[in-house]
Write a structure and sequence with these properties.
By secondary structure, the protein is an alpha+beta fold. Helix content is 50%, strand content 23%.
Length: 224
């Protein structure tokens, strides 16, 4: 029987041992894990970039909407302020003092032997500034709108030519307070008063005696 001798057996055994070497296998497995980790990290990083891009877009849209909302709020505030001013002007127009009505009321007052010599109308406005809402230790203090107060004073200079000069002064004063226009518009406490005292007895060119007197008429203040 022939004997076969494999001269490569030793080399093949060494090669098989190298293929089955646990260190090499560990290196291969480690390399594979590194490659898988890199692939996973790349995937996570890509998702992060995409999410960050989406977040930036959403934040940009939110900021754009916020700016639009602020602009709308500002426009509404301007519209409200303009409307308030229009309403204030409308009220002022409706409540303004008409001098023609005043003159018509004056000419309706008649007391014998009393002659008007001069009318003086003093019309002034007291403006009070408003205040914005503010916060103190007790809470929020509401805003206070501004206001304008109209103050009117009428000065009437007249002559009393009555037989007893000066007797008609109080009658003229009473006639004025009872006239409908003055009765509804004059100050209720001290609407008409005698400013000073009647002058000393004087004589006109025709020798008729008279006294001069002045009435002060205070109208009720009107605040808008």
């Amino acid at each position: 029987m022939p004997i076969r001798i494999n001269l490569l057996a030793e080399a093949l055994a060494e090669e098989d041992f190298r293929r089955r070497d646990p260190v090499k296998q560990a290196i291969y497995v480690g390399a594979l894990l590194v490659v898988l980790s890199l692939a996973w990290f790349s995937s996570v990083w890509l998702n992060y970039l995409l999410s960050q891009r989406t977040l930036n877009q959403i934040q940009g849209e939110i900021q754009s909407r916020t700016n639009e909302f602020s602009q709308v709020q500002s426009n509404l505030k301007k519209v409200s302020e303009g409307q308030r001013r229009i309403e204030a002007l409308q009220k002022f127009s409706e409540a303004r003092f008409f001098q023609g009505t005043l003159l018509n009321a004056v000419q309706q007052i008649y007391v014998p032997n009393v002659q008007l010599t001069r009318l003086r109308l003093e019309q002034s406005y007291i403006v009070t500034s408003g205040s914005a809402p503010r916060t103190n230790s007790f809470g929020v203090v509401a805003a206070r709108p501004g206001s304008s107060t109209e103050r009117i004073i009428l000065m009437i200079d007249a002559k009393d030519f009555s037989q007893n000069a000066g007797d008609q002064v109080n009658r003229y004063k009473d006639a004025m307070t009872s006239q409908s226009f003055f009765k509804s518009n004059l100050n209720q406490t001290n609407g008409v008063r005698l400013a000073g005292t009647p002058s000393a007895l004087q004589s006109s060119l025709d020798g008729k005696p008279f006294v001069l007197f002045t009435l002060e008429c205070r109208f009720s203040d009107k605040t808008q």
